[in-house]
Design a protein that fits this description.
By secondary structure, the chain is an alpha/beta fold. The chain has ten helices and twelve strands.
């Protein structure tokens, strides 16, 4: 059985959008043309891939089984075309978690990973959508399960996290703090806590009852808000260079030390040489700089390392 890549691509995009009109728009074809491609594919396979009805579009069991290898088929076809025409373009890499400065880590390996074209994703859902649509080749930031089917990921760095707090905070003079000593303080978050998985999980684990939300206008503005109130605190990776904000203190967290996990994501089955080079450069630097050291008796992660390695 020979599959038509255009039909498979139409199926994948519709499975991602679960809306024929939106899927057709992303492919720059009419909805009628999209429907015909999917109907021909279903006829070839001898099974329905979608439930179509008043409740919208849903994948059938066969459609759910077909989706992961279909994504691999589309990615392999795109890679084959690029190889045949000698396409030589930078690897498109998006990042998220900007308050935690993901570029500090990527900058350590960028020179060994070929030319990179960097984007500025908003959050994990928006970046994974861009990956699945083929708008970018790879992504870098904090990943947490469950990730959408069709994506692979590799843990790159586990970074210790410090508490940042006002110099007038009752605990500001401590040389180090256990996380649970912050339970009577106010966790200041740069956005809705339910969209900030790491801070949300930290608050749950260490009994932080009081939280408040800011607007993310950049690191300097965010930390100035922390410094203004004596009971506020937030969390930053220890290696993030702090702007010169008067009245701010950074205190290491111990027993346990929270670790912020950075990961590289890409589409399953994408064999692009630049992507292989980027993953190899990340692994090399992680070994050299001991980025993946983890001791469960000393450190805390929202997810065990086994869930993160992918």
């Amino acid at each position: 059985m020979d599959l038509d890549v255009a039909q498979v691509r139409a199926f994948v995009r519709t499975a991602e959008e679960l809306h024929f009109g939106r899927a057709a728009g992303t492919l720059a074809i009419s909805q009628q043309a999209l429907s015909k491609r999917i109907a021909r594919l279903e006829s070839l396979l001898g099974t329905a891939l979608f439930h179509r009805g008043g409740n919208g579009v849903r994948l059938t069991d066969a459609g759910r089984r077909f989706l992961p290898p279909a994504r691999q088929t589309v990615a392999a076809a795109d890679a084959a075309v690029a190889a045949a025409v000698g396409e030589d373009r930078p690897l498109r890499v998006d990042v998220w978690g900007h308050l935690y400065a993901p570029m500090r880590t990527l900058a350590r390996i960028a020179g060994r990973a070929g030319e990179l074209a960097l984007g500025h994703g908003r959050d994990l859902p928006s970046v994974t959508t861009a990956l699945l649509h083929g708008d970018i080749d790879a992504a870098f930031g904090r990943a947490h399960p469950p990730l959408p089917a069709g994506l692979a990921h590799r843990l790159v760095r586990l970074e210790p996290v410090d508490a940042v707090l006002s110099a007038d905070h009752p605990l500001a003079a401590e040389p180090a703090l256990r996380p649970d000593r912050l339970r009577d303080s106010v966790l200041w978050a740069p956005g809705a806590l339910n969209r900030l998985d790491f801070l949300h999980r930290f608050a749950d684990r260490f009994g932080i009852r009081n939280t408040a939300t800011s607007v993310n206008l950049g690191l300097a503005h965010f930390l100035a808000e922390v410094a203004r109130e004596p009971r506020r605190f937030s969390l930053l990776p220890a290696d993030v260079p702090l702007p010169e904000v008067p009245g701010l203190r950074s205190v290491p967290l111990v027993d346990p030390t929270p670790l912020y996990a950075w990961s590289l994501l890409w589409r399953t089955g994408d064999g692009r040489p630049g992507l292989t080079g980027l993953a190899a450069a990340c692994a090399e630097e992680a070994g050299r700089s001991r980025w993946l050291e983890y001791d469960p008796t000393r450190d805390w992660l929202p997810e065990p390392p086994g869930e993160l390695k992918g």
